[in-house]
Design brief:
Length: 227
Amino acid sequence: MARISSNTLFNFTDNIDHLVDNLKNGFYCHNTYEKLPLRNNGYRVPMACFCDIPLSLISEHFDWYGRYGIGIKRSYARKRGVKPVWYVTSENNFVKNLVNKKIDLTEYEKKYLLPYLKQYYGNQQYKDGKEKKKKFYDEREWRFIPDNSLIEVCFGSQANVETSYSKQNGERMKLDLNAIEYIIIEKETDFNRMIMELGEIASTHRKNKFENLIAKIMTAGQIERDF
């Protein structure tokens, strides 16, 4: 029976420099504007995003988010505070109530609820720069939200990217290299760079053997061909 979820959570990026940075320093938390399904409503908060998709179904995700990634054990992610999002639609009364309250949310709602709301279906910018319709529900997203993050509530208007909240870029989610299940690179020509980088990383983390890290490497082409 085909699996529709994975014991591994994946974080993807669009270039090898970002991949190496995440391996060395932990997952980067982008200060992200998240739309909600009612018009001109959303929020902005730092987050590192993961998907719960088996490799046999990952090809479309490559197209949206990049062909470089790290897969970590779900058990480790949960211990770090990574949680699944709650997919909502415009008919959801709870979402309507949040919007009607404008910015007068309780601290609990702002910290523990709002940052995990995700629209079921909507527009997102594709790699060509144009917006396309996307069923976000298919991503089975999980999120890491740093402690003490400021949450900008944007009900009634688009988020202003120049606000002080933008300065939250740079927060990190700690990565234990022993929790890595996969290191995904785009093409075989990336191997030499990755081997060099992993040699440096292993030399500064004595508990992690270089050979073990090398064994985790797969190319996006291999995954599309064999899974």
